[in-house]
Write a structure and sequence with these properties.
heterodimer; A: about 150 residues; alpha/beta; Rossmann fold; five-stranded parallel sheet; about 50% helix; about 25% strand; globular; B: about 525 residues; mainly alpha; Amino acid/polyamine transporter I; two-stranded antiparallel sheet; 21 helices; about 75% helix; about 0% strand; Rossmann-like_a/b/a_fold (chain A); Universal stress protein (chain A)
Chain lengths: ~150, ~525
């Protein structure tokens, strides 16, 4: 029997912490489970950058990944592992909703669990928030933790 | 400060300043500028013996033609693939977070799309007539192959440092590529290129931009001394490149593409409104390209102007874009070469043609109703215009025939274009500078300060001296760069054949997004 996998989106916020707590609760209830924690650094290949920014982009990318691991993913992985769960931490660049969905598909996840991020600003009003877009496009069930 | 700045500038730049007491400050700077750079301009634009055809134009045409034939019309064969690459169809999603093909192209375009497309085209059409447009398009299409060659090499031979930063450009492929092929002289060419690149950055990438931005602003608010515009620009550029205030650059980098799109949209609207004249305008372009009747310099004048402006606008063969494109993250250098060939197409074939068509159909160029030929000015050097304007003001007048408010929008666009081009060229110049003198905070600061000083000079000098100097420096870069491209093109061909064979065999696949 294959393991049940939960993909949890983390962003370092309290809502992300609640999402992880919910995932642990579900995993405890379900038994043999695998939790994948994912931090997505918002990045678009269609943004405009100066030549100087391009020159240093690779360096910055490494720094961004390292910071995300240090501040968010690694502590969360350590805490979850200490609680007795099988866990994996992933940091990726791109669109949050696309990356989480792609990861869920790639790992055959049962569901994606994310914290609710309140809509703010004009951009979210026009294009919708991350959670909204995830719900609209995800290929597996999505649980949003308030 | 008001009196100190001009005095300091004159002391450095003007050996004839003392003899010109009654002249304005702008005139003094202009005269000093023309007298100190005239010899170089004459050398670069010297005609072929017995003709009036500048050898440098022939050099670019032959170079672009050789690359076009050598790579089997790569601009046509790889056009569709270039669009796929820019869309990210072949980008590995696991590599996301690096510099994409789109970003490298957009960065290079922010350095090339600018005043060359607005003022340069007006100069070309004003002197060479609408026929110059044909040669501009032709040069743009040929130039795609030059850009393909140099940008492939730029990525292949870039320096990747331990800290993850990258630096690339002709200086690097000249030294490393020549060594790989066992050819002598790579270092000499690299040093020469770097020197010309620094001067090109100060000329076309800086003074020309400041000059035309001032022309545009003073055309709207009325005449005032150019150095004031220059000083304001210098301070803002200083804040970005020395002060590290990236937020200003970030805003322009986002606004410039928007302005570019808006410029094309407005041009299209004007063309649609005057749809009945489009056929006539293309007729003028076609006829003028081969006969040059009624324009200064005739057929050769149209051809020379077309090629000169195209080269100045899209910089194909110049080597500057190779610096901008080399930061892209790809395992295949050829992919960036393919993407870069879109640059002359967007810059010259699309945007320059739009400007030329609007100028032609707007009626700002005076035509003799009896003969149907263009009327030359008194000096016989260019076509007489309805309001006597030239350069960016001619484009502004042409667009104003469609939308009276357009000069205001164009003024903002020109300022932003000029600003983004200056930022881009400050980077190109800095890369050439550090290649020569080495990296280090003080060394880099010296170049950045010189760059800011030249903004003031450019805004204060008159169009003639500045535009000639800009052309001369940029073409001097092309002399060295194309020489190196000839030597290294077999390497590009090997890469190209390997890449397209793997693409055809299915080894290189599209990624689902």
């Amino acid at each position: 029997m294959t393991k049940t996998t939960y993909v949890v989106g983390l962003d370092g916020s309290a809502a992300g912490g609640r999402a992880l707590a919910f995932a642990k609760e579900r995993a405890s209830a379900a038994g043999d489970c695998n939790i994948v924690l994912c931090y997505v650094i918002e990045w678009s290949p269609f943004s405009f950058q100066t030549a100087e920014e391009n020159e240093k982009r690779h360096k910055r990318r490494e720094e961004e990944i390292s910071t995300a691991h240090d501040r968010v993913i690694d502590p969360a992985v350590a805490e979850t592992k200490a609680a007795g769960f099988e866990v994996e931490g992933v940091v990726k660049h791109g669109d949050v909703s696309e990356i989480l969905d792609a990861l869920a598909k790639a790992r055959g996840a049962a569901q994606i669990i994310v914290g609710r991020v309140g809509a703010r600003g004009l951009k979210e009003r026009v294009f919708g928030g991350v959670t909204g877009r995830l719900v609209a496009s995800a290929s597996v069930p999505v649980t949003i933790i308030p | 400060m008001k009196t100190l700045l001009p005095a300091a500038l004159l002391a450095v730049l003007s050996p004839v300043a003392a003899a010109a007491q009654e002249m304005s400050f702008d005139d003094k700077v202009n005269e000093a500028f023309a007298s100190s750079t005239g010899w170089f301009v004459s050398l670069i634009f010297a005609p072929l013996p017995g003709t009036s055809f500048p050898w440098i134009v022939m050099w670019l045409v032959i170079g672009a033609s050789v690359f076009t034939l050598y790579f089997g019309l790569i601009q046509l064969r790889a056009f569709g693939h270039a669009i796929s690459l820019v869309k990210g169809d072949y980008s590995d999603p696991n590599d996301a977070g690096e510099v994409s093909h789109f970003q490298a192209l957009a960065t290079a375009l922010s350095g090339t799309v600018g005043l060359g497309n607005i003022a340069g085209v007006a100069v070309a059409v004003g002197i060479g007539g609408p026929g110059a447009t044909f040669w501009m398009i032709f040069a743009g299409l040929l130039g795609m192959a030059s850009k393909f060659t140099e940008c492939t090499l730029g990525v292949k031979y870039r320096n990747e440092y331990d800290d993850g930063t990258v630096s690339g450009g002709p200086m690097y492929y000249m030294t490393k590529g020549f060594k790989e092929r066992g050819l002598p002289g790579g270092s000499v060419l690299a040093v020469l290129f770097a020197i010309f690149c620094i001067l090109g950055a100060l000329g076309g990438g800086n003074m020309f931009q400041a000059n035309q931005a001032h022309a545009q602003i003073s055309g709207i608010v009325g005449d005032y001394p150019g150095w004031i515009t220059g000083a304001v620009f210098a301070v803002i550029v200083f804040l970005v490149i020395v002060g590290g205030i990236k937020s200003i650059a970030n805003v322009t980098e986002k606004v410039v593409p928007f302005m570019g799109v808006m410029y094309v949209v407005v041009a299209l609207i004007i063309l649609l409104v005057n749809y009945d004249k489009i056929g006539w305008a293309f007729g003028q372009i076609w006829a003028g390209a081969f006969t040059g009747l009624g324009v200064a310099g005739g057929f050769v004048g149209a051809l020379i102007q077309g090629f000169k402006r195209a080269a100045f606008s899209n910089e194909a063969g110049v080597g500057s874009a190779a610096i901008a494109h080399s930061a892209v993250r790809t395992k295949e250098p050829i992919t960036e070469g393919v993407v870069s060939l879109l640059e002359p197409f967007i810059d010259t074939v699309v945007i320059c043609t739009m400007t030329a068509l609007v100028i032609t159909i707007s009626g700002v160029l005076v035509i003799n109703p009896e003969t149907g030929l263009y009327v030359l000015n008194e000096a016989g050097t260019s076509i007489q215009t309805a309001d006597g304007s030239s350069g960016v003001q001619l484009t502004s007048a042409a667009f104003a025939t469609g939308f009276s408010w357009f000069p205001y929008v164009l003024a903002i666009a020109v300022i932003l274009f000029a600003f983004s081009t200056m930022i881009s060229w400050s980077y190109y110049g800095l890369k050439a500078w550090t290649f020569l003198v080495g990296e280090g905070f003080v060394k880099e600061l010296i170049f950045k300060l010189i760059f800011c000083l030249f903004i003031v000079v450019g805004a204060a000098a008159q169009l003639g001296a500045v535009i000639d100097f800009s052309d001369a420096m940029i073409f001097a870069m092309a002399v060295v760069n194309i020489t190196a491209l000839y030597m290294l093109m077999p390497i590009v061909k090997r890469e190209m054949n390997s890449y397209f064979a793997r693409l055809k065999s299915g080894e290189i696949v599209k990624h689902k997004h």
